[in-house]
Amino acid sequence: MFELRGAGVVLGGVRILSPIDLAIPAGRFVALLGRNGSGKSTLLSLLARQLAPSEGALAFAGQPIEERQPREFARRVGWLPQHPPEAATMTVVEVARMGRYPWRGAFMRHDVRDARAVATALAQVGLADMGERAMASLSGGERQRAWLAMLLAQEPSCLLLDEPTAALDLKHQMEVLRLLASLRDRRRLTIVMAIHDVGMALRFADHLIALKAGRPVFVGPPEAIQRAGVLSAIYDLPIGTLQAAEAGPPIVYPL
Ligand SMILES: Nc1ncnc2c1ncn2[C@@H]1O[C@H](COP(=O)(O)OP(=O)(O)OP(=O)(O)O)[C@@H](O)[C@H]1O
């Protein structure tokens, strides 16, 4: 879906991402791991076209990304930054409706398909009954889910998500991650998600990319990252894994 060839980022004279070769496969649920400041958000911004590479090339679906029409790109790729704007005076449904801009434009009337996409998105994130609430009145987790609804209403084929579960309780983390996994399975969505919870990444993602100081130090399946010493090297911390009695991914814990 995305291919970086020697693509790197320098901001204000500071090297943030080394020139890297990296492929993001289509139809996969990719977790971006790495310590604070390792470059996850920068890589997502690059894929979302919020940043241009300082060198090298970046292709989306086989075409140089800069040649894509912005509206066509927005129909195919949805981006949720780590800190979305305040939008305090907007209601939840107004936020979700913004996801339809690439399809309708900001000032065009919404049709039945738009209304259905917005209603489905709100239901998927559990906010169907809160559509008329002002964003300022929501809890942090509810607000995060409203932004996710905007992205789902956009109906893109690729989601770029920067810590989408950071403010969510365990139940809502599970619901959002299950929803994302089911979108990959049912609609073959490509999902690239920065996440700090390694256990959740192992449980839901099927492809992992770990960054360290602006370069990938691990790219591969969840099983491979569990080999002795790999997680410890990524996080510079002795890390153990423990297989619970039930089947499923291991529990990850600092030693
Ligand atoms: N405009 C900028 N100018 C200088 N340095 C920057 C700029 N933007 C980001 N950085 C630095 O680049 C590094 C990577 O930042 P980035 O936000 O991509 O990391 P991250 O892996 O997403 O971190 P976190 O897990 O804390 O969200 C950080 O050290 C950050 O301070």
From TrEMBL:
<keyword id="KW-0410">Iron transport</keyword>
<dbReference type="GO" id="GO:0005524">
    <property type="term" value="F:ATP binding"/>
</dbReference>
<dbReference type="InterPro" id="IPR017871">
    <property type="entry name" value="ABC_transporter-like_CS"/>
</dbReference>
<feature type="domain" description="ABC transporter">
    <location>
        <begin position="2"/>
        <end position="238"/>
    </location>
</feature>
<keyword id="KW-0547">Nucleotide-binding</keyword>
<keyword id="KW-0406">Ion transport</keyword>
<dbReference type="InterPro" id="IPR003439">
    <property type="entry name" value="ABC_transporter-like_ATP-bd"/>
</dbReference>
<comment type="similarity">
    <text>Belongs to the ABC transporter superfamily.</text>
</comment>
<dbReference type="InterPro" id="IPR027417">
    <property type="entry name" value="P-loop_NTPase"/>
</dbReference>
<dbReference type="Pfam" id="PF00005">
    <property type="entry name" value="ABC_tran"/>
</dbReference>
<keyword id="KW-0813">Transport</keyword>
<protein>
    <submittedName>
        <fullName>ABC transporter ATP-binding protein</fullName>
    </submittedName>
</protein>
<keyword id="KW-0472">Membrane</keyword>
<keyword id="KW-0408">Iron</keyword>
<keyword id="KW-1003">Cell membrane</keyword>
<dbReference type="InterPro" id="IPR051535">
    <property type="entry name" value="Siderophore_ABC-ATPase"/>
</dbReference>
<dbReference type="InterPro" id="IPR003593">
    <property type="entry name" value="AAA+_ATPase"/>
</dbReference>
<keyword id="KW-0067">ATP-binding</keyword>
